[in-house]
Structure formats: C-alpha cells, structure tokens
Amino acid sequence: LDGYTLNPGDLSWTALEQLSEVTVYDRTAYDNGNLALIIERVGDAEFVFTNKTPLPAEAIQAMPKLKFIGVLATGYNVVDVDAAKACGVVVANIPTYGTAAVAQMAIALLLELCHHVGAHSAAVKNGDWTKNADWCFWNYPLIELAGKNMGIIGFGRIGQAVANIAQALGMKVLAFDNYRVKELESETLKYVELDELLAQADVISLHCPLFESTKGIINSSTIAKMKPGVMIVNTSRGPLVVEQDLADALNSGRVAGAGLDVVSTEPIGADNPLLTAKNCLITPHIAWAPKEARQRLMDIAVNNLKSYLEG
Ligand code: NAD
C-alpha cells in the first residue's frame, strides 16, 4: 500500500524481489479513505507494507491470511496494534531510517522563516531586484539565529540531531524531555522544565511523539507563556498543535512564524485556518522523503520481514 508514494521509480526494488509475489499499489485508497478498497487490495496477502494507508481493526479482521504488517514509518499510529495482536499479526515499524532527513527538514523550515529564500528568489525573477531589497527589509526582515535560544520539545533521536545543527548555527539549546541523558548537557545545551523552555526560547521545535499527554501541547495558554515573536516548527505530528490557537497567534503577530510539515488532518482540509495564517509555511508531510531515507526505509523493512520469517 502506498508503494508508488514510497518509490516513484527512483529506488531499487532488489530487496523486495526476494519475495515470490509482490503487488504494489498507489495511494488512492488512502486519499479516498476507502476501507473497502484497502481490504480488496490486501485481499489474501500474507505480508503487507503500508506507509500512510490505515489498517484499522475492521481491515485487519477482514484479512484472514495476514501474518505481518510492516509500517514504513517511525510512528505506527496508522495500524490498530491491539487488533493485530489479537489476530496474531506481527507489526514492525522502522524507528531510525529518517533521523537526519527529518532534522534537516526542521532546520530547512526554520531557515526559510528566517530568510524567505523562495519569496526573494521569485521577486528577483519577476524583475524586482531593487524593489525586492526594500521589500525584504520592511516586510520580510531577515533573522540571524546565532546567539538565540532553540527550544526542543522531545529530545530523542531527531531532537538531538536538530540540536547539533542548531549549535553549529551558534544557537543555545534548551531541551525538554521526560527522560534526561545528563551526559548530553554542555555549555550550549541544557535540559529545562517546559515552562522555562516556553519562556526562554526564540524558536520552538517539536520532536516528541503524539500521546494523550502531548496532544495539543502548543495551545493558547502555552503560547501565552512564550516570548513575543517566537517561531514554531513542527515536523513531528499535527495534533501536537491546537491549530486555531496557532493561527490566531500568527495573525496577531504574537508568534512571528511557523514551519509545519504535519497538520492535524492529512491531507490538509480546505478549511484549515493555518492555510491562510500569516507567515505560516506548510509542507505535505515530506520530511521523511529524501531518496536516501526512502531506500533505507525499504531495505530495513525487507530485513524486518526476513527476520520475522527466520523466526
Ligand atoms: P524518539 O523516540 O527517538 O524521541 C522522542 C522523544 O520524545 C523521546 O526522547 C521521549 O522520551 C520524548 N517524549 C515522550 N513523551 C514526551 C513528553 N510528554 N514530553 C516531552 N518529551 C517526550 O523519536 P524520534 O525518532 O526522534 O521521532 C520523533 C517524532 O518524529 C516521531 O514521534 C514522529 O512522530 C516524528 N516523525 C516525523 C516524520 C516526518 O516525515 N515528518 C518522520 C519520522 C518521524
């Protein structure tokens, strides 16, 4: 499922060729939310790989031969793991394939907020070199990150990778995580409580998983504790943010900019208030998608299946 999304023809399928029969589907079942089509496609397959196409209990229970679900992602919220367990189906996700890719995207979104490269380049191509210079100073002031504080909520693999890049840019890192690795602390990196992070950070980047405890962690009351002019980046999961609250804060200028690779409902709804919010960049959940990361994802997925088959 989602095979062509993962591999629009630019990756090697060699690992998958070791299986006797492989059928690859595009993402129409996911785009249409069509459960009947998902069930029809999986049919009597024994092994299924999915990226974003959901496999709820109803689908899993309708697949009598299913033994193994490979989730081609870090987060495995697309599969009803309890239902799979009850049906004796093994579920394997892939936690490590995209750490560098997602960290790079978080920084890309942040740098775009600070430099507006796309807007300035478009203006130059429109013949607006001089006007662009004035326009940039007044409407899109550039922001230097060196010396500023980067707050990172969720200091696991991706959060730490973002911290390394932020420090290379001259930023100081404030990390918030339930689980602290004291040895990671240094002159430019310290763990803090959430309230201190909210109060001190010039940029806040989200890298915690989506749990009941983290859902809506960015909302009007946490935004009220932040520095005016803070920038927020989310490459983790959309529901970490109360979107109307963030949109209001962007429109009032309380939050200076947001860079989001994920939103609460994907694909994004036409009525999502962030679509029209001021200085809000939105990419379609692609942080994971450099070719190098997708090839790694595919290779690890097939190895997971091989390990399962070898017991
Ligand atoms: P990780 O498990 O290495 O790190 C997550 C960290 O969050 C852990 O250190 C954990 O202790 C911490 N945490 C858990 N609950 C917390 C809480 N309540 N408050 C603060 N911290 C808490 O995971 P990772 O590999 O760094 O991935 C992070 C997230 O990135 C994933 O959950 C996933 O949602 C997201 N992701 C997005 C993409 C994309 O394409 N946009 C791709 C891969 C992963």
UniProtKB/TrEMBL annotation:
Task: Name the UniProt key words of this record, in alphabetical order.
Answer: NAD, Oxidoreductase
**PROSITE patterns attached here?**
D_2_HYDROXYACID_DH_1, D_2_HYDROXYACID_DH_2, D_2_HYDROXYACID_DH_3
Q: Report the InterPro entries cross-referenced here.
A: D-iso_2-hydroxyacid_DH_PdxB (IPR050418), D-isomer_2_OHA_DH_cat_dom (IPR006139), D-isomer_DH_CS (IPR029753), D-isomer_DH_CS1 (IPR029752), D-isomer_DH_NAD-bd (IPR006140), NAD(P)-bd_dom_sf (IPR036291)
Q: Name one GO molecular function term.
A: oxidoreductase activity, acting on the CH-OH group of donors, NAD or NADP as acceptor
Q: Where are the transmembrane segments?
A: none
What region holds the D-isomer specific 2-hydroxyacid dehydrogenase catalytic domain?
A: 17-311
Signal sequence residues: none
Q: Record's superkingdom?
A: Bacteria
Per UniProt, residues of the D-isomer specific 2-hydroxyacid dehydrogenase NAD-binding domain are 107-287
Q: Of which family is this protein a member?
A: Belongs to the D-isomer specific 2-hydroxyacid dehydrogenase family.
Q: What is this protein called?
A: Glycerate dehydrogenase
